[in-house]
Design goal:
There is one protein chain. The relative contact order is 0.18. It is built from 13 helices and no strands. Helix content is about 80%, strand content about 0%.
Amino acid sequence: MLSNTRKKLSEKLGEALTAVLPIICLVLLLSFTVAPIEPGILLSFLAGAAMIIIGIMFFTLGADLAMTPMGERVGAAITRKRSLPLIIIIGFLMGFIITISEPDLQVLAGQVPSIPNAVLIIAVAAGVGLFLIAALLRMFFGISLRLMLILAYIVVFALAAFVPRDFLAVAFDSGGVTTGPMTVPFIMALGVGVSSIRSDSRAGDDSFGLIALCSVGPILAVMTLGLIFPAEGAFEPTAIPDIGSSTELARYFISSIPAYLGEIAVALLPIIVFFGIFQAVTLRLPRRQLRKIIVGLVYTYVGLVLFLTGANVGFMPAGSYLGKTMASLPYSW
């Protein structure tokens, strides 16, 4: 088992390097040519990149061990019950809970000062939950995905005419949280679990499209918030750290980790409680499978803490600094 885990970690490390190395190379190329970066910020970026690579490695392994099996088993279990009220309730709860845990959403919420973080996170999570219900009902009743997407985006673009421009950008950015590392494996596995119970020829095709529909929910949710909250200062620039030595860099990262340890624990707790209740009432998985899922959740927790720390403390300041530097460069059309 230990050798198998090492092999999987090695595979996930390769995937993480493939995802992050092009970004590192691009930032280094820009920093040594047209957009010079202060040494402290560059060191912070490289340290953050290392944490993100390790975080993605642990997180993706945790998703394979925990999130995907959980999604498949819950999806299959609610389908067997053949109860429409149960599907609606469980579908909403799953979409809501899994989105709250999404690291991409945590990053986005911190950049929008005009909306309280908790309000934005809850609104986006509710939007995903409602549209996950719509996606599941589409699978059960065989409704055309094309028709549902056309109708949904007609509503989106109609509402866009009344939403302040700053919030419009935030709304469409928020749709990206449903393509994040936490939400995608769980929701896609849920679709596979639901379709596995169906025996008709369209079951396999209908297991896709959940992510497409769930992406509409956050857009509508944030647009609605844009009609309620003032539009001033929709995005907040990232603070640029003043780092003079490697010791200060280490202290800068270490001092930030406890906050993310608590944040991720609070975010993952509803998923663990939800699955624990489902396990006790319906699933009753054998101990070996349950132990594997618990190990996967630990990997997920460690990976998310490292990922968020690296992204917020290392990547974000470098990105903000690069943006300001490149925007100040002379240009001609």
